[in-house]
Amino acid sequence: MLRAITLLGFAFLYAPILSLVIYSFNESRLVTVWSGFSTRWYAELLQDDQILGAAWISIKVATLSATLATVLGTLAALALIRHGRFRGRPALGGLVTAPLVMPEVIIGLSLLLLFVAMDNLIGWPAGRGVLTIVIAHATFGTAFATVVVQARMVSLDRALEDAAQDLGAHPLRVFFDITLPGLAPALISAWLLAFTLSLDDVVIASFVAGPGASTLPMVIFSKVRLGVSPEVNALATLMIATVSILVLAASFRSWRR
Amino acid sequence: MTDPQPLLRIDSVTRTFGDVYAVDDVSLDIRQGELFCLLGGSGSGKSTLLRMLSGFDAPSRGRIVIDGQDMAGVPPHRRDTNMMFQSYALFPHMTVERNIAYGLRRAGIGRAETVVRVREMLELVQLDKLAGRKPDQLSGGQRQRVALARALARRPKLLLLDEPLGALDKKLREETQLELKKIQETLGITFIVVTHDQEEAMTLADRMGVMQEGRIVQVGTPREIYEFPRSRFVAGFIGTVNLFDGTITQDRDTDAVIDSPQAGGPIRIPHAITGTVGQSVTVALRPEKLVIGRAPSEAHDNHLSGQIRDIVYQGGLSVFHVTLDTGMTVRVTRTNRVRDEGAAIAAGDRVALGFSGQSVVVLPS
């Protein structure tokens, strides 16, 4: 009985993905009709400059915004955990994590208005494009990174940092020698989370992207509106494969320890 | 005790947290090469005092002078002190070797010299074979040694140890106490050990200071503290003690008498005491100073009588709980010199307790 329910649960979660993978190898142009095994959509995908270009932009945006979010999130967590009580601490704690619960439409719209106003006032950021998407994604990525890093920092033994300083290390040195390695697992998680969220986002990106800077999800979304192409299935399968390999590698590494 | 230049001088140091006096006007001189124990319960201020010595906390008032240099405003990484942390605080991502080398590298000691000194330290704590291990691959006792080696590697003027043996089990702790003392004597480095364990303090210390509510209430050798406590608190904190309330009824140059209703009569002391006739005092008597027998013996100048309530057999030692005729219960310990000696006296028996008036300590109530 329990087994059956478990299987049902897995089916509910993964059957759609599985069907997508299977249909990515479909010969037919019609997504719903199976006409034989083929890899032609993968070949066409590699010819599609629009999709490849968008994928490149997405990876660029995700890498930059995840890095920015991890740095800012770590600094925010440091301030919140290691600097005791200071004026504005409760406000910082609340505001830094607010984007977690804020509707994406509102974040997107407000950032768009901000960018337009700034462009008019100080001329920066000039127009909308990769830079504005990176900034927007870093904003909500920081919220997630702060939460992840904060949780780790709380459990980090303060005595380790004291010991390093006692042994003659300048506080800045202590941070790089002791605190950062201690936070490393959280930093990796935070970066991967921010990276994934950025790669995944279509709502906020649609607001703040300019002409010529469409991310991959935006391109897929617009393509699907004209009818689902098997090419998109092939693309999705590649993305799933990449993510699965990364996740497996990560769990293999932690299992070996 | 008025050394012209002690290694460490703590001069009227006070540390307050809001209205709370964590450390309250403590003055203390510690000599070069000494092993000094700070003994006190939790919240007695001993750890706060240690943190001020290492520089992680600063006195609200008073001065700390190490080797002639005032430590005010000197951060921990610029102090010639090292600390062994209660949790050991070994760096989990570094091997034993790199843990020990960390302080040496920060002191600007070259690679070659560091390797030599790390070797020395590993040999000193007998961990040569485990140099390449990570802390989580070590036992509790081994971690303790690494922590000690790491703290000693820089050859500090002053080594501060916060409950250094607290995390070890009893047997290992006893072995390690002796080893720690040996290492300290070999290197000649001044140690300050903070502990709440009075047995540990007695075993380790050249001198010890007993702390209570932020103050040092008595400083002395372990023997002085045990045999001549100056207050009820110290008498009760170090070892067990029987306390009799009484009044001085006679005080002459050669002898004194204290009348104690709790003891059921006068307690005779064969020397003068400080105090005046009529003053209320407490007489402290250690359990091992009492001799238990069926009848009063001629050998003692003081006697008590009562009934055995309970006998706790502890192997080498038996503890007798004796209810005196006055209703007070005293503890008496006796070494079990002969195997079946304990069987002679059983719970419920009437006994006589004898002690010498030389062995008591008269304390202000």
UniProtKB/TrEMBL annotation, chain A:
The chain crosses the membrane at residues 7-25, 54-80, 92-118, 130-153, 174-196, 202-220, 232-252. It is found in: Cell membrane. It is a multi-pass membrane protein. Residues 55-250 form the ABC transmembrane type-1 domain. Its main location: membrane. It holds the Pfam family BPD_transp_1. It comes from Palleronia abyssalis. Belongs to the binding-protein-dependent transport system permease family. CysTW subfamily. CDD domains: TM_PBP2 (cd06261). This is Inner membrane ABC transporter permease protein YdcV. Keywords: Cell membrane, Membrane, Transmembrane, Transmembrane helix, Transport. InterPro entries: Bact_Polyamine_Transport, MetI-like, MetI-like_sf. One of its GO terms (biological process) is transmembrane transport. GO terms for cellular component: plasma membrane. The keyword Iron does not apply. SUPFAM superfamilies: MetI-like.
Automatic annotation (TrEMBL), chain B:
GO terms for molecular function: ABC-type polyamine transporter activity; ATP binding; ATP hydrolysis activity. Its EC number is 7.6.2.11. GO terms for biological process: putrescine transport. Keywords: ATP-binding, Cell inner membrane, Cell membrane, Hydrolase, Membrane, Nucleotide-binding, Translocase, Transport. The complex is composed of two ATP-binding proteins (PotA), two transmembrane proteins (PotB and PotC) and a solute-binding protein (PotD). Belongs to the ABC transporter superfamily. Spermidine/putrescine importer (TC 3.A.1.11.1) family. This is Spermidine/putrescine import ATP-binding protein PotA. The lineage of its organism: Bacteria, Pseudomonadati, Pseudomonadota, Alphaproteobacteria, Rhodobacterales. The gene is potA_1.
